[in-house]
Amino acid sequence: MEATLLSQFAHALAAHKIRVIDLSQPLEADTPIIQLPPEFGKSAPFHLEEISKYDSRGPAWYWNNFSCGEHTGTHFDAPIHWITGKDYPQNSTDTIAVEKLLAPACVIDVSTEAAGNPDFLLAPQHIRTWEDQYGRIEAGSWVLMRTDWSKRKEAAFLNIRQDGSHVPGPHPELVPFLAKERNVIGWGSEGVGTDAGQAFRFEPPFPCHSVMHGNNRFGLASLTNLDKLPPKGAILVTPPLKIVGGSGSPCRVLALVEASSLAEGDW
Which among 127, 219, 251, 260 could disulfide-bond with 77, CB atoms 3.0 to 4.6 Å apart, if both were Cys? Predict the structure, then answer.
């Protein structure tokens, strides 16, 4: 019997011809969360509360309660997260069409630039240079900004100074370019949020949130292991928790990559 597409896929997984790479940060009490000025509401840190662990509270089972903000750790941003995306239909974590939660990824490596400049901004000219080498970004793709920022720990990850956070992100001109001229499905970054640390100073403020969600697109933040992905060819699996009316949720982001496109150390 002729193999179906799904059976070919299953065989490729079993034969390790397709590798699964975890792009998610672990969730724990020390997981960094975004810091907002004191006049705004605060996101709660991740908290785990043991219910029972093979003891008098439950002799045969172990489980926990957990609590956190929707945008904690590696997380998915839905369009309803921002005022510009609030009126779209199917704009929350429980109503987004599930077929949109699997999509190809383009990885833009600016780790060298970000290492020397925490305020580095990825601009349209960087994308055009990347496209000269790897081809045009296809409609419906994720664009992921690799900075290696996820390798930083604790305070260096948030990188907060007296004038706010200093973390690389997209240039204000890049976001409409990607949303309207490349018709991407969303933007992903390694920082605590999808925007640059100083994006509150931009016009518009927080352009990734304002423009991406204003065009009914998605966001992924606090990604890791982007250095293990090829520039093109990976497929992202990005389902958020199905929170009714949710603006986002922690997310176990996975990348499916053909083994032939990986360096041996990335296996």
Answer: 219
Take residue 132 and report the two structure tokens written for it: 């000269």
Q: How far apart are CA 211 and CA 84, in angstroms?
A: 7
H-run or E-run covering 233: strand 232-237
Of 81, 126, 209, 213, the catalytic one is 81
Of 126, 239, 111, 231, residue with least CA distance to 178 = 126
81 catalytic? Reply is yes
Across-strand partners of 14? none
Q: What pLDDT, on a 0 to 100 scale, did the predictor assign at position 262?
A: 72
- Sign of torsion over alpha carbons 68, 184, 225, 260: positive
Q: What is the pTM of this model?
A: 0.95
The whole-angstrom separation of Cα 136 and Cα 177 is 13
Contact 177, 127 (CB under 8 A): yes
Residue 142 · residue 100 · CB < 8 Å: no
